Prior knowledge:
Number of strands: 8
Strand content: 25-35%
Helix content: 10-25%
CATH architecture: Sandwich
Order of helices and strands: HEEEEEEEHE
Radius of gyration: 18 Å
CATH class: Mainly Beta
Mean pLDDT: 88
Number of helices: 2
Low-confidence stretches: 4-20
Largest sheet: 4 strands, mixed
CATH topology: Immunoglobulin-like
Amino acid sequence: MKQFMLLLALSLLILACENENENETSISTNFSSESHNTGKNCMNCHKSGGNGEGLFIVAGSVYQSSLTSPFPNGTVRLTSSAQNTGNLIKSIEVDALGNFYTTQAIDFGTGLYVSVLGTNGEVKHMSSKITTGQCNNCHGNTVAKIWLQ
Length: 149
């Protein structure tokens, strides 16, 4: 009976850790270097049942114009209208490794517009709406990487 109770307690502890991991709130910040795997699709791991910490809602990477080096410490803005106009829905800082991510809930509605702001005042706008935050699923695969000068 003791072995059964010990096994049950261990199982509950493991499940509690998994649930805590999935409910973790995390958002990237400028100058932080806690992220990894720049350029990979973050949601391959940071998803329900995945082995990444937290469930990412929006995540991706920003590169310098060479497309080989990360662009650190910028900002990604999600707005209701094109060209960084309309209501600001979410602002996400790019970390020191060029990655941005958040586990905070975002209502994409019928789509949001993305603008990436550099540390030198440069701004790039995505011309089409997004309805998912898996930026590296397309960028770097089927379309160009996200980049700033």
